[in-house]
Write a structure and sequence with these properties.
The complex is a heterodimer. Chain A is an alpha/beta fold. Chain A is built from ten helices and ten strands. In chain A, 40% of the residues lie in helices and 24% in strands. In chain A, helix 3 runs parallel beside helix 5 and helix 6 packs parallel to helix 7. Chain B is an all-alpha fold. The chains are: A alpha/beta, B mainly alpha. Chains A and B meet through helix 2 and helix 3 of A and helix 4 of B.
Chain lengths: 250, 243
């Protein structure tokens, strides 16, 4: 489980996060949602250690990650897999080398074992046989799936996903969502997804955290979100005519 | 200025922390050596031949007095090529070729979140990205300078053979006479420092890029400009101290 305690983050005078307290449990898809500029990605970056919180703490299974030195964080980092919004694949490496990169650095596996692991991860994301392709030769959806394959190569305990559906068509978006949900169940990962895609929210949101103006405004599940009377959340989720019509039918 | 100096020193300290796995870093060093060394061989060869030839022709043009032996042309070409032309001009050209490549490569990795991805995995990103480039720079640039010296002197030989201003025998006599080993030592020290300056300054500029494609280009430009200035400054300091 990951826990944040009173996380605040300022960039100069700009207060982005205000006293965020959340518990992100294992085996669940924890979705952080909110409008643009609400602090979703900043919260995610504070949790994974890419940003240092102005105040507050992040605990990974009770261990205070915020207070750890870079070297002390390495054992936890090895248990983290992350899919970035831009996929962040290493351009100069093939798909297989991208997936094998953390294995090369942090394991003593033989080359054959590493290739087997890469093949397993690629099969898991339905990209078997694409080992030799380079990131420039992949579509946006394929890049996301390779990013997921790389993220799961070390069998992570914690999986972080930043805007998995950005720039993807609705069908591919649903495939990516289903993949993330399956991995969460299969690997029992603590999965944290930052998104503003309503299909993701309604489809895989076991635990939804709605950020508004840098604050934890609402928490609940995808079943509860349809019946909430929280005005700001309703304005965000049911902004489109389609979603309002769908709500009326519920 | 002090802010950048402090941040540069901290980055260099991080760059030389113990690697996560030596074999992976070693492979990176080899890759960078090929990129910096073999990749720059063509341009270094071309400029060195021309600089050697031009230095010989211009020195011969200026030494028209009868009481100075023509062999002095070879000596002056040799000393100026070893001391200044090969290490400094080669490094200035390499700052453009290698430095801009390093800054834009690391800068692109920064803006496309590839450096964040490394850090998330627990990789010491400065160590993995910067130290192999610095090691490759300080080993390959002195080797390139040695090649540049050889080709520069050969360029002078070709100029003598082609122009008949100075007899080839006199040129060779000038090259071989009165050689002081210190000039080669100074040249190698310069090349070592210039290699470090080019790779570390450009890596620093790339590593702290923020924004997008425009900023990557700006980082590469800044890296090359600062490297060139620092090369000339180091050239002066090393010459003053060692000669």
């Amino acid at each position: 489980m990951i826990e944040t305690i009173n996380i605040c983050k300022n960039f100069g005078d700009n207060v982005v996060l205000k006293d965020i307290n959340v518990q992100l449990k294992a085996g669940r898809n924890n979705l952080i949602i909110g409008s643009s500029g609400s602090g979703k990605t900043t919260l995610l970056k504070c949790i994974v250690g890419l940003h240092k919180p102005t105040s507050g703490e992040v605990l990974y299974d009770g261990q205070n990650f915020t207070k750890m030195h870079f070297v002390e964080r390495v054992p936890i980092r090895k248990q983290i897999g992350m899919l970035f919004q831009s996929s962040a694949l290493f351009d100069s490496m093939s798909v297989q080398d991208n997936i094998m990169f953390p294995l090369n650095l942090f394991t003593d596996m033989s080359k054959a074992e590493k290739i087997d692991r890469a093949n397993f991860c690629l099969e898991r994301v339905n990209l078997a046989g694409k080992n030799k392709l380079f990131p420039a030769e992949l579509s946006g959806g394929m890049k996301k799936r390779v990013g997921i394959a790389r993220a799961i190569s070390m069998q992570p305990k914690y999986l972080f996903v930043d805007e998995p559906n950005s720039g993807l068509d609705p069908k591919t978006s649903i495939l990516i969502d289903e993949l993330i949900a399956e991995i969460t169940v299969d690997f029992q990962t603590t999965t944290v997804v930052v998104t503003h895609d309503m299909n993701s929210v309604m489809g895989i949101g076991d635990h939804i955290i709605f950020l508004n103006d840098g604050q934890n405004w609402w928490e609940g599940t995808n079943k509860e979100i349809a019946h909430t009377d929280n005005a700001e959340l309703n304005a965000f989720v049911f902004a489109s005519k389609f979603m309002r019509a769908a709500k009326e039918k519920l | 200025m002090l802010y950048h100096l402090g941040r540069y020193i901290l980055l260099m300290r991080l760059s030389f922390k113990k690697p996560e796995k030596f074999s992976v870093y070693w492979a990176e060093v080899m890759r960078e050596m090929v990129s910096i060394g073999i990749g720059s061989l063509g341009i270094v060869a071309i400029i060195s031949l021309f600089i050697g030839a031009v230095a010989t022709i211009q020195t011969a043009f200026q030494l028209v007095v009868d009481y100075i032996p023509k062999s002095v042309v070879g000596t002056i070409t040799r000393d100026s090529t070893i001391l200044e032309f090969s290490p400094t001009i080669t490094s200035l050209v390499l700052a453009g070729r290698v430095g801009s490549s390093i800054a834009s490569q690391i800068g692109t990795m920064r803006v496309t979140e590839q450096i964040d991805a490394l850090e998330i995995m627990g990789v010491n990103a400065p160590g993995f990205l910067i130290s192999p480039k610095i090691i490759a720079g300080i080993t390959m640039i002195p080797l390139l300078v040695i090649i540049s010296i050889s080709l520069g002197l050969f360029g002078g030989y070709i100029a003598c053979a082609a122009s008949k201003e100075v007899a080839v025998a006199e040129y060779i006599q000038g090259l071989t006479g009165g050689f002081k080993p210190i000039i080669l030592q100074v040249s190698m020290v310069k090349a070592l420092f210039f290699g470090y300056i080019i790779t570390s300054i450009c890596a620093y500029q790339g590593f702290y890029t923020s924004g997008g494609a425009l900023e990557v280009g700006q980082s590469a430009t800044r890296g090359v400009v600062f490297s060139c200035i620092m090369i000339l400054f180091a050239d002066l300091v090393i010459s003053r101290i060692m000669l």
